[in-house]
């Protein structure tokens, strides 16, 4: 979108775009078909700073702002939604939680390895019985000696199988209102009792790793507790606010990517003796896509700018995610329509974009939940 980004943001966008075209575009279709997480790409992602986007330089990261984070995710999503989801969740959720609420020892232990791509991060809030109502979780952490014992099952966890550590939210106090008795813990892969019990097969984002996690009498030291006891849910809401900006950015990238494909195809494809781009029906679809995506982009980068300014942005992040995700699905759907029957085949990437875009309406809070958040802010007043 034409927008007055700072020069360093424009340069960043170009370098991530070049990277995505060179290193991701040739493989994205294959990874999706194989439903395989591309581990081999992780060192390259780390090399250009995409695994430590907001991690300060003192911990080995790129030390960039939220606008940069959105730009990185958007540019990757133009090519591959799965990889964009990986980058968004690794940076925003798992490492983001440690960055925002971890103590110095935790930051020193986890952030440099996360930024170098030696350790991928996962973040586990959702459970089989608690999704939108995430505070209703039944995973428990009980004090035992000078540590904790965690039991429960987590569902739909991105990097759940390939991650080296996972931030796990668990109930620590059943005797207070549900939001007030939850604590976060960092659980290392390989801790006895902690396992990725099931790899989930999905409609889209198939090369992003999504797993069900089982925690059976998982013992962690108190040093692995992240943030204050019983304060994990309040912290989680803050993590999700920034995360929603990245999901809006992912939606933007998928939508703009699909629009580019539609433009190329519409100019090339001839029916009734002329390029289909000459038909008004096609032009209107293209115009609607561009208008809605640019509106989504303004919402997304407004929310990112507010975050960078240190101003409240929870409502704006929800608005961005709600509008961008739904605009993206519409844009991908229109682009597929413009491709006709060819769009319905796997020869063209537009079907993958449509499948990938749908998760943006669900992950990190469904569209219905975003509407609830926005209305709550409005009514509070
Ligand atoms: C690919 C993928 C990756 C994910 N990654 C992660 C991750 O890394 N970590 C993590 O913790 N979670 C993750 N999730 C989980 C995701 O955040 C949840 O799926 C999402 O929050 C919705 O929860 P649910 O699936 O249980 O749906 P439900 O909450 O059961 O919702 C079902 C339907 O009911 C609607 N609904 C629910 N409550 C209300 C209400 N009060 N008013 C109106 N409508 C309502 C919902 O909007 C939805 O349409 C991931 C999910 C997927 C699919």
Question: What layout of secondary structure does this protein have?
Answer:
Elements: H1 7-24, H2 28-34, H3 42-47, H4 66-77, H5 81-101, H6 104-115, E1 121-124, E2 140-144, E3 147-158, E4 165-171, E5 182-188, E6 194-199, E7 210-221, E8 225-226, H7 232-268, E9 270-271, E10 274-275, H8 280-308, H9 314-338, H10 340-343, H11 350-357, H12 367-380
Helix pairs in contact: 1-4, 4-5, 4-7, 5-6, 5-7, 7-8, 7-9, 7-11, 8-9, 9-11, 9-12
Walkthrough of the structure:
- The chain is α+β, with helices and mostly antiparallel strands and 381 residues long.
- The chain folds into 3 domains: 7-120, Butyryl-Coa Dehydrogenase, subunit A, domain 1 (Orthogonal Bundle), CATH 1.10.540; 122-232, Butyryl-CoA Dehydrogenase, subunit A, domain 2 (Beta Barrel); 239-380, Butyryl-CoA Dehydrogenase, subunit A, domain 3, CATH 1.20.140.
- Helix content is 51%, strand content 15%.
- It contains 12 helices and 10 strands.
- The protein has a 4-stranded mixed beta sheet, covered by helices on one side. The chain has a 4-stranded antiparallel beta sheet with strand order 2-3-7-6, covered by helices on one side. The protein has a two-stranded antiparallel ribbon with strand order 9-10.
- α1 runs parallel beside α4 (66-77), α7 runs antiparallel to α8 (280-308) and α8 (280-308) runs antiparallel to α9.
- The protein is globular and about 80 Å long.
- The model has no long low-confidence stretch (mean pLDDT 97).
- Flavin-adenine dinucleotide (FAD) is lined by residues 89, 123-126, 131-132, 156-158, 202, 205, 210, 359, 362-366, 368-369.
- Flavin-adenine dinucleotide (FAD) binds at residues 89, 123-126, 131-132, 156-158, 202, 205, 210, 359, 362-366, 368-369.
């Amino acid at each position: 979108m034409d927008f007055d980004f700072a020069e360093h943001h424009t340069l960043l966008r170009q370098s991530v775009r070049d990277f995505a075209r060179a290193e991701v575009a040739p493989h994205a279709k294959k990874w999706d078909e194989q439903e395989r997480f591309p581990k081999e790409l992780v060192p390259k992602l780390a090399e250009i700073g995409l695994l430590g986007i907001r991690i300060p330089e003192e911990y080995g990261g790129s030390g960039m702002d939220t606008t940069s984070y959105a730009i990185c995710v958007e540019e990757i999503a133009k090519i591959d939604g799965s990889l964009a989801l990986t980058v968004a969740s690794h940076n925003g959720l798992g490492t983001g939680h440690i960055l925002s609420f971890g103590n110095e020892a935790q930051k020193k232990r986890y952030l440099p390895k996360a930024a170098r791509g030696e350790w991928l991060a996962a973040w586990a809030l959702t459970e089989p019985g608690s999704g939108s109502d995430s505070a209703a979780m039944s995973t428990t952490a009980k004090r035992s000696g000078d540590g904790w014992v965690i039991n429960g099952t987590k569902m739909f966890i991105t990097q759940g199988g390939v991650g080296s550590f996972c931030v796990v939210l668990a109930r620590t106090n059943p005797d207070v209102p549900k939001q007030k008795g939850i604590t976060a813990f960092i659980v290392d892969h390989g801790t006895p009792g902690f396992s990725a019990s099931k790899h989930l097969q999905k409609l889209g984002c198939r090369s992003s790793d999504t797993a069900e996690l089982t925690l059976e009498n998982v013992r962690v030291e108190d040093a692995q507790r992240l943030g204050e006891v019983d304060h994990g849910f309040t912290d989680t809401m803050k993590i999700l606010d920034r995360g929603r900006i990245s999901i809006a950015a992912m939606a933007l990238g998928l939508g703009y990517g699909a629009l580019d494909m539609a433009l190329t195809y519409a100019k090339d494809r001839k029916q009734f003796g002329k390029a289909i781009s000459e038909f008004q029906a096609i032009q209107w679809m293209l115009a609607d896509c561009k208008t809605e995506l640019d509106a989504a982009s303004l919402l997304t980068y407004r929310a990112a700018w507010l975050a960078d300014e240190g101003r409240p942005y929870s409502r704006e992040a929800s608005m961005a995610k709600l509008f961008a995700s739904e605009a993206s699905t519409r844009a991908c759907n229109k682009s597929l329509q413009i491709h006709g029957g060819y769009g319905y085949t796997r020869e063209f990437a537009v079907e993958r974009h449509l499948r990938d875009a749908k998760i943006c309406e669900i992950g990190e809070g469904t569209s219905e939940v975003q509407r609830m958040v926005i209305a709550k802010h409005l009514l509070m007043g």
